[in-house]
Amino acid sequence: MLEENRAIFLRYGPADGVFSEARASQWIRHAKGTIIPNNARIKRALQRNNALLGPSERRVAEEFSIHALEFEERHLFDDWTAGSSRFPTGMDDVLRGDVR
Question: Is the sign of the CA dihedral 1, 24, 71, 89 positive or negative?
Answer without folding.
Answer: positive
